[in-house]
Amino acid sequence: MKKTTQELIIGKLKERGLRITPQRRAVIDAFIEIEKLHPGASLVHEEAKKKRPTLSLSTTYSILGELSRLGIIRQLQFDQMENRYEGNLEEHINLICERCRRITDYKIPLHIDPREVAMQTDFKITEARLEFYGYCGECSMSDEGKTGS
């Protein structure tokens, strides 16, 4: 898995002629620190405020949206929980725990070429995402303790 780095994000923003404002830097730094958690904007905001106390939640949403639109990070949209963000743009499966809402990346053991799928089906693919829903190891273990009584 390629790691999203501060240098990579800042480099991509500069390529597009965007300034690295203190607010952008605080959001980027916070995102990088907690990326493994697939954080929502509220968690990124909470972390970024430690370095930039005047940062607003709306600015955090705006910066994360901008990074997502530019293809630097990916926004994961959900119906029943806060949208989350991830820096892993490689093909992978998101394992989503229905209890604690933790999202874990799982590398796909085979490669599916979206260009080949598009050619064979005449379907224009704009985004691909594979998700498995269930319960993480910790939540599964806590369920087993309850059913044994």
Write the layout of secondary structure elements.
Layout: H1 6-15, H2 22-34, H3 41-48, H4 57-69, E1 74-76, E2 84-86, E3 92-97, E4 103-107, H5 114-121, E5 130-134, H6 137-147
Parallel strand pairs: 3-5
Antiparallel strand pairs: 1-2, 3-4
Protein traits:
three-stranded mixed beta sheet, 2 domains, alpha+beta, two-stranded antiparallel sheet, 42% helix, Arc Repressor Mutant, subunit A, Dna Ligase, domain 1
Structural class: alpha+beta
CATH class type of the largest domain: Mainly Alpha
Helix percentage range: 40-55%
CA-atom Rg in angstroms: 18 Å
Order of helices and strands: HHHHEEEEHEH
| CATH architecture label of the largest domain | Orthogonal Bundle
Strand residues, percent: 5-15%
Detail the poorly predicted runs.
none
Provide mean pLDDT, rounded: 90
Through-space gap between termini: 41 Å
Can you tell me the CATH topology of the largest domain? Arc Repressor Mutant, subunit A
Shape: flat
The biggest beta sheet reads: 3 strands, mixed
In short:
The protein is α+β, with helices and mostly antiparallel strands and 149 residues long. The chain is built from six helices and five strands; from the N terminus they run ααααββββαβα.
What does this 3D model show about the protein?
With 149 residues, the chain is an alpha+beta fold. It has 2 domains: 6-76, Arc Repressor Mutant, subunit A, CATH 1.10.10.10; 91-147, Dna Ligase, domain 1 (2-Layer Sandwich). Helix content is 42%, strand content 15%. The protein contains 6 helices and 5 strands, in the order ααααββββαβα. The strands form 2 sheets. Strands 4-3-5 form a 3-stranded mixed beta sheet, with no helix packed on it. A two-stranded antiparallel sheet has the order 1-2. β3 and β4 form a beta hairpin. α2 crosses α3 (41-48) and α3 packs across α4 (57-69). The N and C termini lie far apart (41 Å).
